[in-house]
Amino acid sequence: MPRIESESFIFDPRPHFPLLISVKRYWSPGFESTDEDAITLVLMHATGSHNESWEPVLEELYSVNGTASSISKYSFKIREAWAIECPNHGSAAALNEEALRSGYQSVFPWADYARAVHLVLTGFGKGIDVDFRSRRLVAVGHSMGAVAAILARTYQPSISWSAAILIEPLILAHEVNREYELPFFNLATQRTDIWPSREEAGNQFRDTLLKDWDPRIIDLYLKYSLREAPTAGKATGVALKCTKSLEAATWRDTTGRIEALGHLSAFCNDVPTHAVFGSISDFLPAKNRDLLVKQGAAGNFKTVTEAVQTNPQAIAESMWIALIHPSSSYAKAKL
């Protein structure tokens, strides 16, 4: 498995935006490229997740690309990947603990995740000295992150995505949103978010919440999603950085995922867009997938694949299929 290196940043967009943004850069020594056609992946996570959840997927993507490049008709080069965290999730939630109490306790708009992505990539702030506008940017968004990828492009100056990969995009029609809003919200409010120890939290994750997930994802969740006490009124133990109240506030926003549906067709017309749907439909019905493919995207997804959501290798393989698609201007055919 290729070695992945990382570097953490705190991007400060104030006064343009009141919340700090946690960002992580990833690269693989020996595989990175500074060629003009090399791509920069921009990774946006799902609700309840965190930046580091992408690490197993990146490991698998570098591995798949390295193995397949010798036999595939097409190949591509990866410069690096940047994971941008939703400001009320993961490390960002801890950074913004005080600021989130002012106006974000009831509802956290998904559009604000998109706004955070836009600010980082357009340089409206300090803490990252990179001109992303000169890069070949590929958006990779999972669930809420897929919505962020679409809505980030609605701000000015516009972000130029070279391609977009939408993994389990939680983009809903109004009628589907009404049907599934409450279960998502209840799942967040009823979950445990404080444990006596990290070990007990891990036991619960492995036995119930994340029992079907790749062990690497569970280990990363334990490492990066929890914070030590004192916190949340407890003197000892560990708690989720993105507390259940913060996650519930995120689910209360019903406009972001509906708004993204309204932009999806135009987005797909302008950006080569690929959809990856879960082969295990835990929450959303097939009718929502059909609506996205046939109506929302107007049949303009370049590729539509399935992958087991809990398997980083399966996700990476679907991403690789998207990235070598002839519609990608950076995918070079071998002579």
Automatic annotation (TrEMBL):
This is AB hydrolase-1 domain-containing protein. Pfam families: Abhydrolase_6. Transmembrane segments: none annotated. InterPro entries: AB_hydrolase_1 (IPR000073), AB_hydrolase_fold (IPR029058). Residues 41-230 form the AB hydrolase-1 domain.
